[in-house]
Amino acid sequence: MPSSIAVAVIGAGAIGRTHIDTIRSTPGVKLAGIVDPTADARSLADTNGVPYFPDTNALIAAKLADAAIVATPNELHLPVSEALLTAGLPVLLEKPVAESLVSALKLVSIVAATGVPLLVGHHRRHNPIVRTARAAIEAGDIGDLVMATVTSSLAKPAPYFQAEWRRKPGVGGPLLINLVHEIDQLRYFFGEISTVQSITSNSRRGFEVEDTAAVCLTFAGGGLATLCISDAAVGPWSWDLTANENPARFPAYDVPAHYYAGSRAGLSLPDLKLWKPRGTPDWTETLTSQHLPFAPAGTYVAQLEHFVDLVRMGGMPLVSAQDATANILVLDAIARAGASGQSVAVDLSPLTLSQDFKSEDRGHS
Ligand SMILES: NC(=O)c1ccc[n+]([C@@H]2O[C@H](COP(=O)([O-])OP(=O)(O)OC[C@H]3O[C@@H](n4cnc5c(N)ncnc54)[C@H](O)[C@@H]3O)[C@@H](O)[C@H]2O)c1
């Protein structure tokens, strides 16, 4: 392996540019080139002094990359990743793993057939705040989960929706684009989700795809959660606007967005504040609180470093295609629950049938 891994970025839009900046600021990695059909991307490649390619096949033919990051619209995740994996190039694929269950399962089988590493970009799992919270939860610090509340108010501006894929049902919308992160994080902490209920609405923006949703979950290991998400609601109460993972794109407010209340203690995130009773839990007694210590580190850098390790040495990705497909199964159940008004069971059997479901570090089953 070369001393510096050459990583191409495919899709130089909003998050692709974050990946480009991350590559440029991370030792041991260099930008191999930019793939994107737009003129803006061509000038971005010129500015960065790297080769430009109009499509993935041209990148593969040039043999300049050791690996690639795929940050295209959701419906292109499967075909672009398939071309790369078949050519033997490891992939860091943005979330969601694919736009549909059919595409996600096809990708799972391509990863298994090629044996080439694919890491899905559920970047929060690389965030030291999330890793510290998970360690505390695993250590029993909050006891059994009783209830969780997740808020995600993301007032996106009109130009964001000029990209047509973001308005398309089955491809865009805040469930696939944003809620998938919350689902992944809850599964990482509390294990698999067994049933879902949901109400979705498109009345704020009037697009065909939803703009707002209220979702209820039950976990196989016990505990209930509610999630409220909207891409048309104003407020600082979302992970993106509180966790400070991407300061170049988002401001960060000092309020929580996630609350986990357990049988022993409560934990809010991303402030990592643990609320404990002095003795037996009693709502009339004053709780003590402390911020759990953690070592701050760049989340996208940590994700890229893990990807580079996979490129160099192989091994199990922190978020495998199979694992990320479980998030799609939950989203599918949420969509069916919203359409039917009924509670819907999450059926993970399509995954348990495929071998090697677990990622190295994905938590409870
Ligand atoms: N992990 C995160 O923090 C995060 C944040 C935002 C978006 N995402 C995900 O990243 C992906 C991209 O989202 P975005 O908001 O950056 O979208 P975007 O629309 O801003 O950018 C997509 C880019 O892909 C390019 N593109 C289109 N077809 C292409 C092709 N065939 N080959 C190469 N490039 C092509 C477009 O020209 C555009 O520049 C989505 O899957 C989204 O869900 C992840």
From TrEMBL:
SUPFAM superfamilies: Glyceraldehyde-3-phosphate dehydrogenase-like, C-terminal domain, NAD(P)-binding Rossmann-fold domains. Residues 130-236 form the GFO/IDH/MocA-like oxidoreductase domain. Residues 6-122 form the Gfo/Idh/MocA-like oxidoreductase N-terminal domain. Pfam families: GFO_IDH_MocA, GFO_IDH_MocA_C3. Gene3D superfamilies: Dihydrodipicolinate Reductase, domain 2, NAD(P)-binding Rossmann-like Domain. The keyword Aminoacyl-tRNA synthetase does not apply. It comes from the Bacteria. Keywords: Plasmid. PANTHER family: BILIVERDIN REDUCTASE A, BLR3664 PROTEIN. This is Gfo/Idh/MocA family oxidoreductase. It comes from Rhizobium sullae.
